[in-house]
Design brief:
This protein is 33% helix and 25% strand. By secondary structure, the protein is α/β, with parallel strands linked by helices.
């Protein structure tokens, strides 16, 4: 559990925004607590040795060297560019481990588990893996809406068709790198999520994500950040991913800033459970009473690359805010909303309307729209971003041109002697009240 540090009124406040920072003070806000995530990242000199130990002593699995040495074709699955850079930092060390195991580059390919996200350009793929690796091995990505790319592995007990990319299935060994951090309806990222929906067809992802909506059209109470037990989305993902054989999972545990804190490798399910246990100790924070105002930075690029990613930080901050309160959110959203589909859902105008439509036609971003609109029923969100004011207002949020403007707006909605919480990286921690 992280602890709160009281910030005296008037003290300078510096928060991440895109590739830069926003700096201001909180003059006039009398009761302020800053919840700074712990920096538990693995120092670079220890990174390779820490990873090597995890690869040599995995959970319920033979060592990577043993598996790789006996495999023919090997595919390495990595997260896309909307996720923290941790997997990209680890990739060269994994390639080095394969080389020491006697595996040449001609036996290796890299697969970007984009899930339902948009395709990456060649330049973006090159940036993901680095120039040297890009020129050494084949690099490809998931294209979820192209049915020709997928092969069926059957159906889960909840009715999800398990359609997995043929490139992934065609390998003899699948090495999967995933970052373990909160996910607002799958509970946690990493593990099984890198394969389903990461390497799955759109229909597979959509059917799985539909489980986040209950029979009344509301968000399932078990589908929330930090919860795996009884979470139908997680359990269905795990069942679907479990149909894929010969997987060696490398779970990268992140601290609250998105830095590497440790590794848990091995069996797909058991290693993920171990990684979640380690991550929970780092990322849950007790905040006491609910606050009147929460100031939340998503944590900068790439965590605020678009609004869909930044919404995760708003979702976390909302856990700490009382009804009638305000969130001031900082998220550059340099790549816009993230999907036109989200705006179509938000244009329905109310949580009730979104809920009704989800009952008969589920959409991949319908859950995001419903989650946001539910929050807006009980609090206001002031957004500092690069989005056009009319776009922000269309989403039901209040646009602010800078931090001072945002605080002025918050002050007009609230009594400034109320309780204020500051989350410098709201994406990375979950407030517990």
């Amino acid at each position: 559990m992280t602890n709160a540090d009281a910030t005296p009124p008037g003290e300078s406040l510096k928060l991440a925004y895109g590739h830069g920072w926003v700096e201001t003070d909180l003059k006039g806000f009398l009761k302020v607590k800053v919840f700074t995530p712990p920096e538990a990242g693995t120092p670079p000199p220890l990174l390779d040795s820490t990873l090597e130990a995890s690869l040599e002593h995995p959970v319920r699995c033979r060592s990577l060297a043993d598996l790789a040495g006996k495999a023919g074709r090997i595919i390495v699955c990595i997260p896309d560019r909307s996720r923290p850079r941790a997997a990209r930092e680890v990739l060269p060390a994994v390639m080095g481990a394969l080389e020491r195991a006697g595996v040449g580059p001609e036996r290796i390919s890299i697969f970007v588990s984009t899930g339902t996200h948009g395709e990456h350009s060649e330049d973006e793929l090159r940036e993901l893996v680095g120039d040297r690796i890009f020129g050494l091995v084949a690099v490809d990505q998931n294209r979820s809406r192209d049915p020709a790319q997928f092969r069926s592995l059957g159906t889960t007990s909840r009715g999800t068709p398990v359609m997995i990319n043929k490139l992934v299935l065609g390998a003899d060994l699948r090495i999967v790198l995933g970052t373990v951090a909160y996910h607002y309806f799958a509970g946690w990222g990493g593990g099984r999520k890198m394969l389903v929906p990461g390497a799955a067809q759109f229909e597979t992802a959509c059917t799985n994500h539909r489980l986040s909506i209950d029979t009344g059209g509301n968000i399932c109470s078990e589908c929330k950040s930090g919860l795996l037990d009884g979470n139908p989305v997680h359990e269905d993902m795990a069942e679907a991913a479990g149909l894929i054989e010969n997987v060696f999972m490398i779970n990268i545990v992140l601290d609250g800033w998105g830095n590497i804190a440790g590794f848990v490798s091995g069996d797909l399910g058991e290693s993920h459970a171990g990684a979640v246990k380690l991550a929970r100790e780092l990322l849950e924070v007790r905040v006491g009473d609910r606050c009147d105002l929460a100031i939340a930075s998503a944590g900068g690029h790439p965590l605020d690359l678009n609004f869909i990613q930044a919404h995760k930080s708003i979702d976390h901050a909302a856990e700490s805010v009382k009804d009638g309160g305000v969130i001031v959110a900082l998220a550059e959203c340099a790549n816009g909303i993230g999907s036109d589909d989200l705006m179509d859902w938000l244009d329905l105008g109310s949580a009730e309307a979104v809920s009704s439509r989800l009952m008969w036609r589920y959409g991949i971003h319908g859950h995001t729209a419903l989650s946001l609109l539910k929050k807006l029923e009980r609090l206001k969100v002031v957004l500092i971003s690069s989005l056009a004011d009319e776009t922000v207002e269309r989403m039901g949020l209040v646009p602010a041109k800078d931090f001072e403007h945002a605080l002025s707006l918050a002050g007009s909605f609230l009594d400034t002697d109320g309780l204020t919480y500051v989350f410098p990286c709201a994406w990375g921690i979950l407030p517990v009240v």
